[in-house]
Amino acid sequence: MSDSSPRSRCDAATRRWSERLERFAAGNHTVAAFCTTEGVSLSIFYLWRRRLTRPVPSPAAPALADTVRPLPTATIATGWHRNQSRSRPGASSRPVKHWVRTKRQWRAWRLAA
């Protein structure tokens, strides 16, 4: 009786796709023709190729925290008072300043009318 645990099914699929990708590498056809012959979709082919050819991270690789830099922030005036503001990560202050200037111009025009 075969073991049908999720782990063994995953191992079997990995083995099957490794063999399939070796056949593709040994052959001389396009991906579309190979997938038609094997009866698999292009997206699944590319998914398994990406999974099985993904490089294994080396222990000497820098930690993710060493490569992360904080994003710039911009303060957005959210109310009529300047003390009502919020910062939005990754934002430039230039569009915000334009928006605030346009809002003030509209308000002045509206009050003058």
Summary of the model, kept short:
58% of the residues lie in helices and 9% in strands. By secondary structure, it is mostly helical. The chain has a two-stranded antiparallel sheet.
Could you explain the architecture of this structure?
By secondary structure, this protein is mainly α. The chain has two domains: 49 residues; 40 residues. The protein is built from five helices and two strands. A two-stranded antiparallel sheet has the order 1-2. Strand 1 and strand 2 form a beta hairpin. The longest helix has 21 residues. It is elongated, with a radius of gyration of 28 Å. The model has no long low-confidence stretch (mean pLDDT 75).
Report low-confidence residues grouped into runs of 5 or more: none
Percent helix range: 55-70%
Number of domains: 2
Please compute the radius of gyration using only Cα atoms: 28 Å
The largest pleated sheet is described as: 2 strands, antiparallel
Molecular shape: elongated
- Strand arrangement within the widest β-sheet reads 1-2
Average pLDDT across residues?
75
Straight-line N-to-C gap: 86 Å
Number of strands: 2
Please indicate the percent range of residues in DSSP E strands (runs of 2 or more). 5-15%
Along the chain, the helix and strand elements come as: HHHHEEH
Global structural class:
mainly alpha
Number of DSSP helices?
A: 5
Region (Disordered): 80-99
